[in-house]
Every structure is written in structure tokens, then in C-alpha cells.
Amino acid sequence: MHMTSTKPPRGDMSRLKDLLRHHELRVNKRMGQHFLVDRGILKSIIAAADVTREDTVIEIGPGTGSLTSELQCSAGEVIAVELDRRMVALLHDSFDASANVQIVEGDILTLPPAELLDLYSIRRTGRYKVVANLPYYITSPVLRHFLHTAVRPDLMVVMVQEEVGRAIMAQPGDMSLLSVSVQAFAHPNIVRRVSAGSFHPPPKVDSLVLRLEVLKSPPVPTQLVSAFLDFVAAGFHSPRKQLRNSFGHGLPLPREQIDDLLTRGGIDRHRRPETLTVEEWVRLWHTYCATASGEEQC
Questions:
Q1: Which of 235, 201, 37, 59 is nearest to 142 (CA)?
Q2: How far is the C-alpha of 45 from the C-alpha of 130, rounded, in Å?
Q3: Average pLDDT in the chain
Q4: What is the pLDDT of residues 60-105, one digit of tens each?
Q5: Beta strands in 141-273, from DSSP E residues, in sequence order
Q6: Alpha-carbon distance 142 to 124, whole Å?
Q7: Is the domain 222-295 a CATH 3.50.20.10 member?
Q8: What superfamily in CATH does domain 2-214 come from?
Q9: Crossing angle for the helix pair 243-250 and 255-264, to the nearest 10 degrees
Q10: How do the domains of the chain map onto residue ranges?
Q11: How many angstroms separate the CA atoms of 282 and 158, rounded?
Q12: How far apart are CA 48 and CA 174, in angstroms?
């Protein structure tokens, strides 16, 4: 993993401020806007995503288009989805002449990936990557949106809040619903740490760039993802307590059946939910689905 980036070059910051002034724009903090201005970090994001002319890339929250510009030079086509109408106007001004960049105004969480590709992809391969400096407040929903759907990306490279990134990367002993929900569908790796000073305006925390190698055949089929995650959420109902007690609050089962479920699933009933591996959660869920209590939900 690379070291934390320090302050961006003065020229990068000046260009951003000049661009905002030219378009008479101010940062919308309510929308979580923190613009990455260090071009060196932008290039490392592109490198981590292995972007080539064969790729269709979906970018989320392009803002002023600094990452979009780098993607434009590397990708076959870029579908940049921006919610802020003011930024959409700026992006059209910058990229309307670009044959390989499509600017889409909308909320990414209401646009299914399959629909987005069908409407805006010219290449029509059905394959794509996600590259984004994510607004912190939609990180988890965005990951679910792309990892838990039928048309998943081949790869995701995203900038996230450091604390969230560490939670995604957690190992048994510190697992959570978030780490299980990501690691059951992708192999995450830390690309680099990025200091708050690399953004304008600087956020209150540092960030991590994560590379998520999406599994081609995840252990849970798409139509059962919601049921699986509901089951895991029941296991984390009372974190730091024994799993049998947590399930006692999260599942509509008597204690005897919960103990039997854990035994048949090969899990010590005294273990805590944060100690289970993704493989153990999947095995336990399949065991639950094989019971009369779990058949209807699975």
C-alpha cells in the first residue's frame, strides 16, 4: 500500500478553483462534495483499475470532471453519472465534444446497472468497471447497488472514507455486516491511503482507495442475496454477544433450534458473530435454508 498523499500540487488546486469561479459554482457540502485535486492520485486510481480502450467505465459523482478527464484518455467509453445539476452543466461544457464520454444526470441508486448500460453504452458488451471518488454518505448503498445485482462489474476502484474502508477489509475477529456483504461478492484490496489535504474542500478524515475484484460466481445467487443478508444481519443483531444470543433476538426461533442450527452448521454456539469467516456465514445460511424454518425465506 502506498503512503498517505500530502498536499496536492499548487497548480492542481488553482485549476480547480479557477474552474469553479468560471462557472460561478460553490461546493455543495450537503451532497458530500469533496473534489480530489491531486492529479498524481487520479492517475494511480486509473492504474489500479487497469483501464484500457477495451473498457466501459461507469463513474459515480464526477463533480468537476477531473477523474473523468483521466478516464477519457484511457477507457473505450465513460458513463459519468452526476446528481448535482450545476455540475452536470459544467460537465456538458467540458465533455460534450468527447465521443467516448456520456454525461448522465441522475441518482445512481435509482439507475440499475443493466438499465444504465442499455441506455448509454455504445459498445454493448454488457461488461464494465466502476471507478469513482464516492461521496462518503452513499458508499455502502453504492457497493450494494453494484455487488448485489445480476449485472455486476468486473472490477470496482473506489475512494472511500478510511474508517469504512478498514471495515470493508476486516478479518475474522472484526467482521461486520458490511464486511460480509462485500467480501461474499468481491476480493477487496487497499490501493493507497489519501490525506484529507488532497481534496477541496478537505474532509475531516483521510480516505482509502479500494480495489474490489468482483467474483464471477459468488456463493450466493442474485435472487437470494436479500435473504442471505437478512440472515447475516440477524446474526449481527447484538454485536459482541455470543452468536446464539444474537440470533435469539434476530431470528424467530427458540433457543433449542438456534443451538441445533449452529451445531449442524459446524459453528461453536459460544462464538461471536464478528469471528465468523464469509465461508462460515454462507455454510450456516445454507444449513438454515435446509430447515423447515428457513425454507420459506430461502
A1: 59
A2: 11
A3: 89
A4: 999 889 999 999 999 999 999 999 998 899 999 999 888 999 999 9
A5: 155-161, 186-194, 199-200, 207-214
A6: 23
A7: no
A8: Vaccinia Virus protein VP39 (3.40.50.150)
A9: 120
A10: 2-214, 222-295
A11: 26
A12: 26
